[in-house]
């Protein structure tokens, strides 16, 4: 795995909201503790078009990846959790970057609520939801780091 060019606290992060049909992406900056949606890529049974992900990686040159971990409300794993872990491992191997998994419970519901507040039903497009969910996953990771 390649080591980061930036020290902890100054890293650029790409976050992923894993799904079987779409994978949302967002960009985060540790320095500001903020993240913004980038978009979504299509996937077939959880396998993305890797060149689509490579475009984001080559454009933003992240230091690490954060992949949302879809857990049941009681914290237990489900099939989608295992699929997200497999995606994260492939992502790490494909781009030689560290992958950190972050609990993503309730991020989709939160994303839908925020999007609806800022544009109503027309704003609730799948790629908007997935990309904003990815941003919320990164922000959740930042909060966990600052509170550790």
UniProtKB/TrEMBL annotation:
Keyword Membrane: no
HAMAP family for this protein: Nuclease_YqgF
Family matches, as SMART domains: YqgFc (SM00732)
Domain YqgF/RNase H-like: from-to ranges: 11-111
Homology family: Belongs to the YqgF HJR family.
Keyword set includes Zinc: no
Known EC number: 3.1.-.-
Pfam families tied to this protein: RuvX
The protein's enzyme class: hydrolase
Protein name, per record: Putative pre-16S rRNA nuclease
Keyword line: Cytoplasm, Hydrolase, Nuclease, Ribosome biogenesis
Record localization: Cytoplasm
Protein function: Could be a nuclease involved in processing of the 5'-end of pre-16S rRNA.
Location, primary (coarse class): cytoplasm
InterPro entries: RNaseH-like_sf, YqgF, YqgF/RNaseH-like_dom, YqgF/RNaseH-like_dom_sf
């Amino acid at each position: 795995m390649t080591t980061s060019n930036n020290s902890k606290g100054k890293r650029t992060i790409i976050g992923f909201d894993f799904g079987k049909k779409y994978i949302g992406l967002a960009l985060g900056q540790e320095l500001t503790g903020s993240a913004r949606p980038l978009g979504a890529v299509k996937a077939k049974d959880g396998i993305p078009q890797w060149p689509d992900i490579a475009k984001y990686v080559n454009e933003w040159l992240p230091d690490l990846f954060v992949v949302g971990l879809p857990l049941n409300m009681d914290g237990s794993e489900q099939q989608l959790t295992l699929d997200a872990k497999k995606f994260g491992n492939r992502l790490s191997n494909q781009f030689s970057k560290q992958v950190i998994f972050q609990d993503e419970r309730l991020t989709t519901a939160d994303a839908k609520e925020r999007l609806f507040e800022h544009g109503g039903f027309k704003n609730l497009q799948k790629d908007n939801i997935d990309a904003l969910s990815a941003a919320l996953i990164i922000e959740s990771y930042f909060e966990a780091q600052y509170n550790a």
